[in-house]
Structure formats: structure tokens, C-alpha cells
Amino acid sequence: MINELKQKLLANFNDVQVNIPEDNRMTVNTKKESLLSLVSYLKNMGYNHFAMLSCVDWIDDKEFELIYIISAYPQDDEHYQDKEKKNILLKTRISRVKAKFITIISIFENAEPYEREIHEMFGIHFEGHPRLTPLMLERDYKIPPFRKDFDTNKYVENTFGKVPSIKERKEGKK
Amino acid sequence: MDRNQIGKWLKNPGKMANKYSFHVVYFCTGCGIIEVPPSITTRWDAERFGIIPVATPRQANLFLITGYVSTKTLAAIIRTYEQMPEPKYTVAFGSCPINGGMYYDSYNTITSLDKYIPVDGYIAGCMPRPEAIFIGVTHLWKLIDMDKADGYKRYREDYVHYRANQEQILGELDWPPLFSKENL
Amino acid sequence: MSLELLLIIAFSGAFLTYLSGKISSQLRDGVAVLISLGLVAIVSFLYNVQTETVFYQGFFGISLILRMNSLAWFFAIAIVSFTALCIIYSLSYMKDCERSNYYYFMMLLINASMLTIVLAGDLVTFFVAWEIMSWSTFLLISYNRNGALQAGIKYIVLSLIGSMCMLVGILSIYTSFGTVNIADVANHLTPSSVGYKLFLLIIFSITFGIKNAIMPLHTWLPDAYAESPSPFSAVLSGMLTRMGVFGFLLIMYVIVGMKTTLHLGRGFLSFNTILCWLGAITIVIPTFIAMLQNDAKKLLAWHGIGQGGYMIVGIAFGTSLGAAGGIFHTLNHATYIVLLFLSVGAIEYSTNGLRDLNSLGGLFKKMPIAFFGGLLGISGLIGVPLTNGFVSKWLIYKTLILGNAPFLAFAALLGTWGTVLSVYKFLHNLFLGQLPEEHKEIKKAPLTMQIPIVILSFTIILFGILPGLPLKVINSIIVAAGFQALDINIWGVTSETGTLNMLNIFAAIAVFGAIFWGIFKVARKSTPVDQYDNYAAGAAVPKNKYHYTVEYYAPFYRMGKPFLKDIFDMFYNRIAEAIGSICDSVRKIYTGYVGSYVMYIVLFIASLIFVQLTWSIF
Amino acid sequence: MNIIALFVSPLIALIAGMFFLGLSRKISARIQWRYGPPIYQPVIDVIRSFSQKSITHGKFFDFGIILSLSSSFVLILFLPIGKLCALTSGGLIAFLYLMLMGPFGIALSGAAAANPNSSIGISRKFLLALAYEVPLLLVLLTVMTHYHTISLVEIVNIQANSGWAFGSWALILPGIAYLLILPAILGMRPFEVVGAAQEISSGPIAEFGGKHLAFYTLQHALHVFVGIALFVDIFLGGWTFFGLLNPLAGTVWAVIFGIIIFLLKMTLVLFIGLFVNAVYPRFRIEQAMQYLWKWPTLISFVGLIIVVLTK
User: Which uninterrupted H or E stretch holds C199?
Assistant: First the structure.
């Protein structure tokens, strides 16, 4: 089944590289232009669960890699087994400078919080997203904290380290 | 209960009762909370020391913080601490509240808790076993006996400084100061 | 002071108020208050007076009589004082309303007509005053127009059915005995047949049952209470509806006579047992329907029905404790239901007409007087010890239990527990809990609204601790009706099967309250905190959303809602719809075409000729 | 005698109530293979609460809890404890109403705190009360109809001949029904829906701390005492024990031993509740209502019918 899908993908899309590391897992590397059509194609093929959006910061290549994890479940609910679930990892790379990409909300509505999270943690702008407001972080980080060039040690020293102990503060005041 | 104890009870019943009736707010922040269920159930039975968990800070006098404290949790911790009635004691459990522990370089985990609220005792370890909770409690008893568990008094005295530290991390706080001039 | 003069003052005062309203509104307010307070003074001077005067001779050969006795005085003083309080309350409540002349006119007219009803010594006066009361009530219920008009029509239709029944009864009495004087009728009725007595009892019971809203005849009440202006709702629920109780007392214990009434029928199928069971149903079902209401006034209205059941059970059970309890409960019910309606009215006034239980809350900090009124009102409604409701309910329970009617007692006690739930919801959703931001600044209720609330709250406590005061009058009423006298002292009732002494309970609660208040004061002083400094699992307290009101008893609603429908109302509505559609189809003969009318005339004449030719009737 | 009872019976009730609270914690611990707290632990808790500095949400927040505690003490005066009964006015009906005032005071106080957890807890409390009042009222009416009196003292005294109420077989069904609803009256599991600490942060008392909490604990102790004592008074004959005290009749010893017998009977009844409490999980409020309106109501209803028919 998953091999059939590989053949179909290779036939329909000319710029994909498909690997099957395990029986029920498939990774698809693609160009960013054809991602949207791939996602909608997969949805039509029965891969109707958008499980997660992840991101890797390839700082040496000056690129972000976005990973869309999409799964399909067998129709037969009663005899469901976990190994019958199939995952597809769609990987695409975008430029790290002024990073931006297109939203897939039109295909999978539940992508909204994932894209917000990625926007918050990596600073990738998703065009067409209805509200890219802060999701989890409360503080103002100059560089998004999950980027590789965010120096946590230095940041911690500058913020939490700079809070004086009560004793110091009392003496400093006096 | 020996004769010595009875004398202490007559002298200061409130203090002794505080010692032997810890009603605890378990602030389940990190992995430390997994050590709490064994400590209050059959295996270690904290209730024999009068320690029972309660649901709201209003009824508690011991505040147990079990694990790392992110900045967002810090606000909740401060609110909860301020809602507890005095006298109240704070015990931080595990290494994370002491110096950040394994989250020493995290971008949103504070490194030492006692800059923001007063901590009366630390139980070190990653994680400490339930026995360590009881050792911590016995140490806290000794501190209370010696009147050294005075975190709530320090908080009252140095409230301005604590508040300044809290605001330095959390920005402007959305609740009014606990101690204004009239109820100090 | 003769009774005619009293009624002349009452009726002419109403017209005078209306006329002075044409001159200036201040003058009208003054006149209205003066008239109503004057009536209170006059009636209270008539205490312990037993007179009977013929005020008009020769009304078709019937002499119209007014008489005063303890029963009449008891109801009269209640009517005039509650109306006076409501008039004082109206001064600011109705200030900016349109048609306020008309409002005061109707209020005083209703007051006067109720006074005439209780003073009437013959059935014609009674009927005429009853009609004046019904019609003017209809006009005031529909004062707010729109929805109120529907409620008013519902009321007047049922009320007319009642009046017709009463008219039939009065006519039959007149044709049988040739007199309508109540005392004479009672004398004539003693030797007459059981069937005729039963006929009279049933036909009058329909009239008074509609007025007192006994269960199958109650449907006019919830809408009418909810839609009329609050001070009038208070009068309506407090005294006007209880004219039904007065009527029951009159027909059962004065006209037919106590001993006869209690022995009509056999076993379960006797008149008073059936009436008791109707009363028991009236206690239980409306009380539970009240739990579902989201409109404060509607909730109180359903309780108005439910509490009426206690009076009926007490009166119909036919023991001296029961009758005393039923009559006393009429007075008590009036005090606390008037108080509750006035408190709700104060909220309406302050929040610009809000009385939805789901959108208010936390008002006890802003309106302490109205809150204490509400608290004491619901305490009376439940019957918490030290409030007057406790005493009257105690009398009823005791007689039911010792009279071997445990199922009636169960219904009554169950109704009380249902009352606890629904009135707590009322108090909680209006006054307790979080105060919404938009009600931080509200209009302050003026003094004229607070004074009646304070007086009534005081009355509730007074009659709760010293129940002997009203029970003394009630005792003379039940003695006049032929019951055994109760052994009453100022603190309560003594009898060999258990005494009630409010002094004990009052002293115990006062002493323990003082002790624990003292301990509370001596212990460490507590810090006052804001409502937003509240436990929310460490999160910030959300403003305006931290109040649990909607579907307050959700688990019960899920279980009970399908069973708690007002099926009688639906049944009557179905009948009304059917009549409407029949009339609609009848109307179709008016085609608007001259030819068809000509055809009708021709057909009619043809049929007449046909009839004449066949049977030769004419 | 009445004057002595005025001072003694609240003390007995308070001490016994606190003892029962401690005992129930200890017994539950032992059933769960724990050592358990010392038996005087509730007293320590109350002293601790008193020594703490509480918060208040306004005057009414204080008023409710004071009303609740003082009316609970008044309730004790109406309850025959052994042979002591300070006040008899009003009988069982006044008793029922006073039983209502304790929870009502807490409800007022809890709702004044403006905490939705409290409100939910109170809503559950009243629903549970409605649920168990139906069988309870039937049971009490059965007893009152059977003995043809509304006075609690008389009900106890009539039982002195047979030692308990079950000498007359018509009262067995109501007795069973009362035992079935006893955990609900005491607020124990499986009916611990009101102060559910894990769901609604201990319900009505979510905002109580310091002296408010201490007052609440005392009130709860009295409530537990009353719930059990009512059963002992109505069905187990109060101070009587099959004529054991007859030789002492009229002496002070009869009163003292009467109280001791009474408390022993109460402990016995408490144990029944505790064994259920220790092993059962909690009902949802709907399940609790359905249960209470099914079996206990049916049993007590049949009991009432039997009593009415055999009268």
C-alpha cells in the first residue's frame, strides 16, 4: 500500500524524493512550491490527520526545514492496530533570511496552533494565517528562542542572572 | 508526647499545632510531583505526621514546590503563596528551584526561587525520594522550634524588594500589592 | 367610625387621587399616601369591634349589609397596610413612568374593593366588589402592555369563569332562600340537603380556587405576577390572590359551617380531603417548577402558587391547629412575598429593569437593604426558625402528622425542601457571588423604597419571635368558626402533644450567636480582600465570568426537566386555540359580498317557513 | 436536669464529634493499611486554623459561618443525648428545620466569597440534601406516625421498654432506609460530592481559611454527631440498653451511664458508615440522586404504608 503510494507520488510529482525507512513510515522531501498541492493530494488519498508541524534550524545551510507529519488510519475501527497507522513526513526547506511560508489552514484547519507555535519559536511568517499572535511565550525575546543563534546561556545570565537576591537588593538600596 | 512537649503546647499552642498539622498545597510544576502520591498513600503515609494535601491555598500552611519553575508558573506560585494565610512555610523540592537544575540554561525557567518568594527549606536531589520529604519536614520542625522558619515574616518585611524582583521578571503585575501601608 | 364612612373614604380617595394627578404629580403622591395611611389608621381603630350595618335598603328588595368581625378585621388590616407600604414604595418606583395617575387610581380602587369584599355582609355586595377587583386587576396587570396584555387576558378570562360560577351560586341561593345576607343564608342552609351544600361548595371552590391559584386552575398566575409592575405584583401576590383564602374561609366555615363541611362525603372521597390533596399537589409541583425559572419574578410567582397550597391544606384539614396555621400562613406569606417582590423591584430600579437571574450577581455589597430584605424574605419563605413562616408551617405540619395524614405532611415538607433549593438560587444569583463590572456603579434605591423593605423585614422577625400577637386574633377567628380555642401565649402555642416556644429557640440562637461572635472577634483579625483576590488555581480571576449562575442545579434539570412542565397551561392553551380556530371558521360566512347576505336572509326565512309548516311552532 | 443539659450537652457533642472525626481518619487509615494520624489530630487542625490569619470577603462572609456554627449548637440542645435534653420545644419538626440552618449558613458564607467552586459545591450540597431528604422525611414521618408524637424525647422514652425500636417489626424497613442514607447525611463516600477536593477544590469552603476553617471543622464535627445521634435516638433507643439501667433509675449514675451507652451505640453506627466510606469511590451527583430516590425511598415508602395500614 505504502509502496503504491510511493509510485503514485513519483508519477504525479516530478520534484519529490521518497524514502521508506519503516513499513508504515514514509519521508517525502519536496520543494516548497509544490508542498501545498502535495498536502491536498495526500488528503484526498485518505491521509486526513494532520498530526504535527515541526521545524529544524539548519543554520549552516541558512535554511529552515519544515516537517509536516500527516497520518492515515485504517477504515476498520474495530480491529485497529497501531502498526496499521501510516505516517508521512513531508519535508521542505525554506530560506532562513526573512523566513516566510504559506499557511495550510485552507487544507487542514487544525494547523493553526502549530503554525502559531512555529512562528513564535522560530520566527517563520506564515502568509494567510488569520492570527499570528503570541501563543505560549510571555516574554520578549529579541531572537526567537528556538533558533540556533539564540544564545541561551547569555540570555539566562542577562535576565535571570541579573535579578539580585533580596539581600543584595536591600544593600544596594542602602 | 513527653512532658517537655506538653510544656511547649501550653506555652505556644499555635506554633505547636502548626508543626504537627501541615496542610499542604502541592504545586505540581515538574517531575517532582510523582514522588508525592507514594508519600501520602500506604507506603509512606504522610498522614501519621499530620500532613495532608488540601485543595486550596486558603486552608494550607505548607507550600511544596515540586520541580522547575517557568516564568509563567512563577506568577501562579506568587499568587498562591500570597493567598495562603500566615503563618506559612515554603519548601522547594528538587534541584530545579534551587539553581535551575538541568534547566539552568533554559530561556524561560527561573534559576533560583528564593529571589521571588521566601523559601524556608530545600530538599535537594533530582529527584529526592519520598523519605527525603519526611527528612525535610523534620528539619522544618526544628526550624519552627527555633523560630527560624520565618519566611512569611521576611516576605512581609522585604515585600518591596520581593515585589521589585517579581516585576523585573514578570513585567508589571496584574494584581495589587499584598501589603499596602495599612495592613503591613 | 362607621363602616360606610370607611368605604366612602376608600373609594372617593381613589377618585380624588386621580383628579389631583391632573393638577400636579406631587399633590397626587401626597394624596395617595395620605389616603392609604388614613385607611390603615381607621382600620386599626376598629380592632375588636363587632358591628353590622345596613347601608342600602331596597336594592331590588335586598338590603346591602356591611359587617365587621375578627375575620374581616384580620384581612382588612392586612390589606390596607400592605397596600399602604406598596403605595409608599411606588412613589419612587413609578416616578418616571407614564400613566401614573391611572396606576395610583387603580391601586387605590383595588384596595377599596378588597376592603369591601372582606367587609361585605351579603353576597351581592361581595359579588360587586369582587367584580370591581377583578376588572381593575386586569387593567393593572396589563399596565406594561405588550406581553403584559397577554397575561392580563389570560387572567380576566379565568377570572370571568370564576365570577360566572359565583353568580350561579348566588342566584341559586337567592332563588332557594330569598335572601343573600350571609348570616341568614347560613341559617337557612343548615337543614338543606347534603347535595345542595356540596353543589354550593364546589361551585364557590372553583371561583376561589381560580383566585387562589389551586393547581389545575393556576395558569393565569405566573405571567400575571411577572408582567405587572413590581409594587403591584406585591399587592397581587400578598393580598389580592389571598382573597381566595378569605372566600374559602367564608364558604367553608361561615356559610356552610365548619361541622358540615368536614363531614361531607366519606373517607377519601370527602370534600375536605380532596381539597387537601389539591392543596398538597399545589405545594409540590409549582415549587419544583420554580426551580427551573430564570426570571426572578416568575420564580416568586411559582412560589406564590406553592405557598397558597399550604393555606389550603391548613384550612381544609379542619383542625384548630390547621385552620390557625392556614390563616396565619396567609398573613406570613403576604409579609415575605411582598418583601421579596419589593426587593426585586429595588434591583429592577437600580439596574434599569434587569431581573434575569443569570446576568446579575454580587449585589449584596451595593444594595445591603434590599439584600437583607431578600434574605429575610427567603428565610420566611423556607420557614427558618425565628421567622414567621416557621410558626405557621409548624402548626400545619404538626396537625398533619398528629392527624394521621403522613402523606400530606410529606408533601408539605417536601415542598419546603424544594423551596430551599429554588429560593437559594434566587438569593445566590441576584445578591451573592461576583459583582459584574457593569454594576459597580448603580443607582441607589431611594429612601421611600427602603422604608417598606425595612418595615417588612422587621415584621417578619417580630411575628417569628412573638407569634402570639397575630395568633391572638386568629384564635378568635377560629373560635368564631366553631373550632376549639388554641392555648396561646405571646411566645407560641402550648398543647399536651408538644409545644412551640419561640423564646427558647430565640434565646438559644442569640446566646450561641453572641458567644461565637465573641470568639470570632477575639481570634486573629482577618484581612479584608477584594472579590478578585480569589482562589482560581493560581490564575488571574476572570472579570465578569467568575460566577456560577446559569443552570444552577444542572444535574437536577437534566433529570427533572421533562417531567416539570405546566401541562394544565398547555391544555388550556390548546382549548383556547381550538375555540379560536372554530371562531375563525365561523367568521368565514362574512364574505363581504351583498349577494351572499341576501342569500342568508332568504335561507333563514325559508327555514323558518319550513319549521312552521312542519311543526307549526309559532 | 435541663439546666445542666444546657451546659453539658454541647460539650459532649463537641468532644464526641471531634473524636468521631479523628476516629474516622484513623479507621480509614487502618483499612488502607496505613498507620494513620493520632486520634486527636482534628483538634490540632482546629488549633492550627485558629492560630492562622484568615481572609474575609466582607461582613456577610463572617456572618454566615457564625450563624452556621451557632445554629448547629442550638440543634444539639434539641437532641436527646443520653437522658439529657435541654430544649424540647417544637419537637422533631423544629429539629428538622434547625438541621437545615447549618448548611444554609455555610451556603451563604461560601457564596459571599464569590468563588464559583463554592457555588458549585453549594448547588451540589442542596441537591444532595433534596435527594436524601425524601427518604429521610418518609422515615421520620413513619416514626412520628407510629409513635403518634412529634417529640424526640418521647420517642426515646417509648423505646425504653423494648430497648430499641425494632421490637416493633413495622419500623425495621425505615431503619434500613436510614442506614442506607446515613453516608449521604454525613457527607461520606460514596456521597462525598459536596466537598470534592479534586474536582471543585473542597467546594463551599474553598475560600475558608484560619478561623473560618476552624469554625467549619467544628460545625462539621457537630453535623456528623447529629446525623448519627438521630439514628441512635430514633431506632436504637438512645440511652436505653435492654433494661440495663433499670436498677439505677432516678440516680445520677443512670444519666452518666446513659450517656456512655449512647456514645457507644453511636460509635457502632459510625463504624458501619466508615467501612462503606473506606472502600467506595465517589458517585456523580446524578448517580447519587438516582440511587437515593430509588432504593431508600422505595423502602421507606413501603415502611410508611405498612405503618399507616397497621395503625
Answer: helix C194-212
Optimal mutation site among B159, B175, B181, B184, interface C, most CBs of chain C within 10 A: B175
What ipTM did this prediction achieve?
A: 0.85
Phi then psi for residue A62, to 5 deg, are 55, 45
DSSP D56: E
The set of long-range contacts for C575-583, using a CB threshold of 8 Å and a minimum separation of 24, is: none
CATH code of the domain covering residue B58: 3.40.50.12280
The domain in which residue B66 lies consists of 20-170
> Which residues in chain B are closer than 8 Å to C530, comparing Cβ atoms?
176
C-alpha cell at C235: 399587592
- Residue D137's nearest CA partner among D311, D310, D276, D293 is D293
Distance of CA B14 to the CA centre of its chain: 19
Residue of chain D whose alpha carbon sits nearest to that of B21: D45
| Residues sharing a CB contact under 8 Å with residue D279, sequence separation 6 or more, in sequence order | D31
- Per the CB < 8 A criterion, the answer to whether C251 and C198 are in contact is no
Count of beta carbons in the 10 Å neighbourhood of residue C444? 13
Tell me the pLDDT tens digit for each residue of D37-86.
Answer: 988 899 999 999 988 888 888 888 889 999 999 999 988 888 888 888 88
Complete domains list, chain A, with CATH: 2-157 (3.30.460.80)
| C465 CA: distance to closest CA in chain D (Å) | 13
Task: Round to whole Å and give the CA distance between B70 and B73.
Answer: 5
- B14, part of any domain: no
Of the pLDDT bands very low, low, confident and very high (cuts 50, 70, 90), residue C157 is: confident
| The residue type at D29 | A
Closest CA to C10 of C64, C51, C93, C66: C66
Count Cβ–Cβ pairs < 8 Å, chain B vs chain D. Answer: 90
Neighbouring residues of C584: CB distance < 8 A, sequence distance ≥ 6: none
Q: Is C236 exposed, middle or buried (0-12, 13-18, 19+ CB in 10 A)?
A: buried
Does residue B75 fall inside a structural domain? Answer: yes
Q: Do chains A and C touch (3 or more CB pairs under 8 A)?
A: no
Grid coordinates representing B18?
Answer: 502548626
Distance CA D104, CA D208 (A): 16
Q: pTM here?
A: 0.88
Does the distance separating the beta carbons of D201 and B56 come in below 8 Å? yes
DSSP characters over B103-140: GTT-TTB-S-GGGTS--SEEE-SSSPPHHHHHHHHHHH
| Average pLDDT, rounded, for chain C | 86
- Asked whether the beta carbons of C307 and C329 are under 8 A apart, the reply is yes
Cα–chain-centroid distance for residue A142? 21
Q: Are D265 and D236 in contact (CB under 8 A)?
A: yes
Interface present between A and B (3 or more CB pairs within 8 Å): yes
Burial class (CB in 10 A: 0-12, 13-18, 19+), C234: buried
Give CA B82 to chain center in angstroms.
11
Q: How far apart, in whole angstroms, are the C-alpha atoms of residue D207 and residue D118?
A: 8
Q: What are the Cα distances from residue C551, in Å, to B137, C399, D83, D123?
A: 45, 37, 47, 10
Domain count across chain B: 1
Question: How many Å separate Cα C174 from the centre of its chain?
Answer: 30
- C538-564 burial, b at 16+ Cβ within 10 Å, e below that, comes to beebeeeebbbbeebbbbbeebeeeeb
Q: What residues in chain B have their Cβ under 8 A from chain A's Cβ atoms? A: 71-72, 100, 104-108, 110-112, 114-115, 118, 154, 158, 161-162, 164-165, 168-171
Q: What is the mean pLDDT of residues C42-66?
A: 82
**Domain chopping of chain D, boundaries:** 2-310
> Do B108 and A139 lie within an 8 Å CB cutoff?
yes
Task: With respect to residue B41, please indicate whether it lies within any of the assigned structural domains.
Answer: yes
Give the span between the Cα atoms of D261 and D273, in whole angstroms: 19
